[in-house]
Prior knowledge:
By secondary structure, this protein is an alpha+beta fold. It has helices at residues 2-9, 24-27, and strands at 69-73, 87-91, 98-103. It has a domain at 42-104: Trypsin Inhibitor V, Chain A, CATH 3.30.10.10. The protein contains two helices and three strands. A three-stranded mixed β-sheet has the order 1-2-3, with no helix packed on it. The model is unreliable at 20-36 (pLDDT under 50). Residues 16-39 are annotated as: Disordered.
Amino acid sequence: MGLGLLAACSTPVADQPAPRTVERAQLNPPVGSRMPTGQTTDICKAGEMQYLVGKSRTEIPVPVDVVNRRVTCTTCPVSQDYSAYRLNIFYNADTGIIEQVRCG
């Protein structure tokens, strides 16, 4: 008897349209997938930061939005997920000198 009543309560009304839902990913894209507007190449702006190669890691400017930036040593473990929107700055762990700036 209880199951019949439960089923009757969950039946949708035919005259009312189903509620529209917005995917959560549309509202808040996952980290690393924020798409900058108006750009098709060098999305992470690695080209603008190439001047850092050969300098000390202490000269890396502190960004306002750190969501899409990773600073790590060349021998440090990092996740292997690729994001064209993430700026990676790799430095030598022994010397602290920046060796590479690239997207990914």
